[in-house]
Amino acid sequence: MELTSTxxxxxxxxxxxxxxxQEACNAVEGMFLKIxxxxxxxxxxDNAEGxxxxxxxxxxxQTADEIAREGDLGIADNIYKQLxxxx
Length: 87
Hints:
The chain is an all-alpha fold. It has four helices and no strands. The protein has helices spanning 11-40, 42-46, 53-70, 75-84. The longest helix is centred in the first third of the chain and has 30 residues, at 11-40.
């Protein structure tokens, strides 16, 4: 007699959940970098002469997003490892 699972797991659904989790982990890393950069550059933003502080803030956000996408800080990977065990 062969035993089989009564609730088959769809690999496609699992892969979608993994992809969504990875995106969320990358977003958390990006938010962390934005906060870190903004706090580190706050004095520069406060003393911006002739430049819009909102434009500089936007530039910092874009820089943080780029670092998160291209860099390998490992924050997103560590969060993913912790959370993917529950998938």
